Amino acid sequence: MLIFKRIYKKSKKKKKRLTKEQKEEALLRRKWGMDVKKLKGYICCISGTTDRRKLVAHHLDSYHTHPEKRFDLNNGIVIEKSLHKKFHKIYGYKSTTKEQFAEFYLQEKTNMAKGAIKGGGAAKKAEEKGAGKPKTGKNPMKGKKAC
């Protein structure tokens, strides 16, 4: 009986292995995210933050409902992780659109402007840190479409 219990416990701990296709798609997703961030100059299009640890790439048209646009660099933008979570908390994960992001973008920009007028909020913090300003003398967004 003791031997059976040990074998049973070990078999429960087996991890599900990814298929070759799943591994390839995971690598493509990661490369897509890095390429989008590089293309957009590592700047959040809403808050202007440049801290690379806080930035993620976001699909404008949902990854799930638009498989043809999954790895299209023009279907991606760069936003802060906290804003990304907030967006998906409002609109969900499976069927988001460019129009929903445009609505969210305007709402957040308005909220940040109100915070700056009142003397606080994310816009003031970003301004204090110098967010949105390139660290070199060159403008990384020159000739590129922002959001």
In terms of quaternary structure, the protein is single chain
Shape: globular
Radius of gyration: 20 Å
Stretches with pLDDT under 50, minimum 5 residues: 131-137
What does this structure look like?
The chain contains 5 helices and 2 strands; from the N terminus they run H-H-E-E-H-H-H. The protein is mostly helical. It has one domain. A two-stranded antiparallel ribbon has the order 1-2. The longest helix has 21 residues, at 98-118. The N and C termini lie far apart (64 Å). The model is unreliable at 131-137 (pLDDT under 50).
Outline of this structure?
The protein has helices at 2-12, 20-39, 81-91, 98-118, 121-129, and strands at residues 55-59, 76-80. Residues 131-137 have low confidence and may be disordered.
List keywords for this structure.
147 residues, mainly alpha, two-stranded antiparallel sheet, 5 helices, 49% helix, 7% strand
Helix-strand layout with pairing:
Elements (H helix, E strand, L loop, with lengths): L1 H11 L7 H20 L15 E5 L16 E5 H11 L6 H21 L2 H9 L18
Antiparallel strand pairs: 1-2
